[in-house]
Automatic annotation (TrEMBL):
Protein name, UniProt field: cytokinin dehydrogenase
UniProt entry keywords in alphabetical sequence: FAD, Flavoprotein, Oxidoreductase, Signal
Reaction catalysed by this enzyme: N(6)-dimethylallyladenine + A + H2O = 3-methyl-2-butenal + adenine + AH2
Annotated coiled-coil segments of the chain: none
Residue intervals of the FAD-binding PCMH-type domain: 54-242
Enzyme Commission identifier(s): 1.5.99.12
Molecular functions per Gene Ontology: cytokinin dehydrogenase activity; FAD binding
Main enzyme class: oxidoreductase
Recorded superkingdom: Eukaryota
A Pfam family reported for this protein in Swiss-Prot or TrEMBL: Cytokin-bind
Signal peptide annotation: 1-22
Amino acid sequence: MAHYLFLSLLFLICTSFISTAGLPELLRFGGVEGSLSLDPTDLNSVSVDFGGTARTEPAAVLRPASADDVSSLVLASYRSLNAFAVSARGHGHSINGQAGARDGVVVAMSHHHRHGAQSPSHAKSKPAYSLERNGYYVDAWGGELWVDVLNWTLANGGLAPRSWTDYLYLSVGGTLSNAGISGQAFHHGPQISNVYELDVVTGKGELVTCSDEKNPELFHGVLGGLGQFGIITRARIALEPAPKRVRWIRVLYSNFTAFTKDQEHLISLGNSSPSLPRFDYVEGFVIVDEGLINNWRSSFFSPSNPVKISSISTDGGVLYCLEVTKNYDDTTKDSLDQEVDALLEELDFIPASVFTTDMPYVDFLDRVHRAETKLRAKGLWEVPHPWLNLFVPASRVVDFDRGVFKGILGNKTSGPILIYPMNKHKWDERSSVVTPDEEVFYLVAFLRTAVPGSTEPTQSLEYLTRQNERILDYCRDTGIEIKQYLPNHATRSDWERHFGDGWGRFLRRKAEFDPKHILGTGQGIFQPLSSPSFAL
Ligand SMILES: Cc1cc2nc3c(=O)[nH]c(=O)nc-3n(C[C@H](O)[C@H](O)[C@H](O)COP(=O)(O)OP(=O)(O)OC[C@H]3O[C@@H](n4cnc5c(N)ncnc54)[C@H](O)[C@@H]3O)c2cc1C
Ligand SMILES: *[C@@H]1O[C@H](CO)[C@@H](O)[C@H](O)[C@H]1NC(C)=O
Ligand SMILES: *[C@@H]1O[C@H](CO)[C@@H](O)[C@H](O)[C@H]1NC(C)=O
Ligand SMILES: *[C@@H]1O[C@H](CO)[C@@H](O)[C@H](O)[C@H]1NC(C)=O
């Protein structure tokens, strides 16, 4: 009965998109309350994202009770004379309105337990062992936040996903629509390389199970697919026994070439023989001026340390920090120091610039959340974030350093700048994500915060946005073939250039899985097609 009412409501809504009056009345029908909302507060809460600048108003918000709800909604649009936009929204941590659906319906996939809402996530299965894969996996709802996946798998067998993002309050569907990267990606590949199977609602409203063997074109298309081919309602995620603790180490460089040489050395370990000693996580960041002290990612250094750091002389005024971890538990504890020392010995950092800490694995994974709590307390979390994430080919990273870190940035950065390399062979060429055409490429992430009303001009949104443009211009003018991660492009030809050789495949997948361009309009790649009969 409820389902019937839900469908008839959808039907009425579809009709109302043509004559918009009367939408609120429809909500008085029973059976769907709390599922489909036209409440201005709900609409408002999904109209903005972490970027804090883009605004995209939908006509309604669906809080699905199941994958079937998602399917009914998309089907209603697909069958409608005037197809309306439908976008999944995970935790809304995009920067440029990517999860928006102008005048359409936003499917609010994530209800974190903090908000007390019941969600389909409660249907989560216990982790299981796959003989075929020789490893464990868990099935998670697409809107599940990674922090909740971790909580669940730890509680059910002491397991954990292998490949991460730095921040865990992101949804499974949201990161899998991009790639999902952190310091483990060099070894395990991005999160999209650690998924066995998906349930996906396509743009035709069909709920399809897909994997490498079953409907592989949809499976690979959706991974890194920017929400263009389907809404992920379930993901089968690879797990490993969760490490107990991590040794977390930072070392400093003033010589960029030495820094990247060491990073590339570290990510090559294990390529030839998986059992060779290596770190479990390799990242790094750039320190320009007070960049380190303002680093919100952790309170790693004791208060006296920044003084020490500022006394290190640098050439271009820029320092580089290599960040690595080694996981361990009771059985590997004894050999830990020796292994870490042996790995560090091969590196060429500034002597005596070794900063070490030690903590439970889970605390390490959740490190950014601690910083979030502090920033929230200061009113510095819900502010504009003009972030820019780039993949830079290793062959040009020195030019990038010269022109950007030692050039365009000047002395102020207004937020952390991450830099770490990855191995392309850990990425599946069949997925939709776009990376540079070289075996080793770097993520360079400018994670800056604009401070509204600041008297410091370098903290204004305009200044930082202009700087992002200058960085992109510099790469174009000097022929550095960067690719944007979490891409944001203004025109069709920019998107075409972004996808390069993959553009034809992307268009074919769109025509097959979302022929009416219903899904993911917030990405700005496609807009809904009105059917010819409606145009008449
Ligand atoms: C503080 C912070 C730290 C971050 N750290 C990292 C990091 O370390 N590594 C990294 O890789 N990224 C990182 N990101 C970026 C993040 O992975 C992406 O912005 C991701 O899209 C956010 O997930 P979300 O659930 O908020 O997605 P949303 O912003 O809600 O959605 C993003 C896109 O995915 C689509 N989408 C959402 N759910 C689904 C679904 N179920 N099925 C299909 N499409 C869907 C949306 O329509 C939209 O196009 C970070 C972002 C923030 C704000
Ligand atoms: C999981 O979350 C619950 C509720 O927030 C918490 O009490 C519990 O300690 C968490 N479990 C783990 C293993 O982190
Ligand atoms: C920087 O490091 C590189 C690689 O180790 C080395 O060849 C170069 O001489 C170093 N430059 C300086 C100024 O020390
Ligand atoms: C950075 O600061 C130093 C000293 O404070 C100054 O000499 C230099 O010109 C500044 N560089 C840039 C690029 O602004």
